[in-house]
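ok so i was messing around last nite and threw this chain in just to see what happens. nothing serious, just curious
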Amino acid sequence: MKKIILGIVAFTLIVSCKNEKKQNIQEVEITDTVLADNEGDVIEIEEVTPVKEKKMHWSYEGESGPEHWSEIEKNSDCDGKYQSPINIIDVNAKTDIELKALDIHYSTKTQIHDVVNNGHSIQYNFEEGDYIMFKGMRYDVKQIHFHESSEHTIDGVRYPMVIHMVHMNKNKEFVVIAIMVKEGSNSAPFDFLEKYLPIHKGESKSIKKPFDLNKNLPNNRGYYTYTGSLTTPPCTEGVHWFIFKDPITVSLEQLKVLQRLMPHNNYRNEQPLNDRIIRKTK
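result:
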């Protein structure tokens, strides 16, 4: 007797027998591999365990790198028109005499809640207290994190590292301040931050100590500004960027501490400017 493999069958068989007075219904549900002969008689049933497809997570290289983020993160803005980072060409930036110094309110008493190694960067999460005022709204500091090398470039120059200070208002809109970092003299604020390192990927460490963010700002507060996006998925657009013109300095040893803990070159490449205008302070 010739056998025919029918394959994986998932069905509900309903056999109905009707007459004028009553109705009998029998339901049989089979979710297995069925082997049958050519007369339809079942000769073997094998249980099948479905295999779930594992979702790919974004990274900075290979098939999950930045050029594939829009494919991996389906509901993101990563393929949007107004993305970050960009290359800032100083001579093309519009000097705006109406731009004022950033209205920064960083306290010496605001505490760092914890530090996290999220697999993409080292991130320090802040408790409420530090904020900036922008267009009449308060934007609270949520966290700071690091990229090596820098994501934005200035006249094509990519700095060894950048600090991103992420602020958010009550409407979940973002302001990000970027502080370029170069090799030079030792930084006391970095010594404080790095004494809680190292932590391994996926780990966090409670800090609960005050930290003065003013100490990480450059002496010259001149900046470039434009509207772009977050530089990691979901690449949310409408982010107000402020990139300080002048870098701060840290020692080579301090740079290496962070570099050892983060993915190599954890930065997104330059995105098209399109029709956006970069403004700068005088």
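not much to say yet. The first strand starts at residue 3 and ends at 18.
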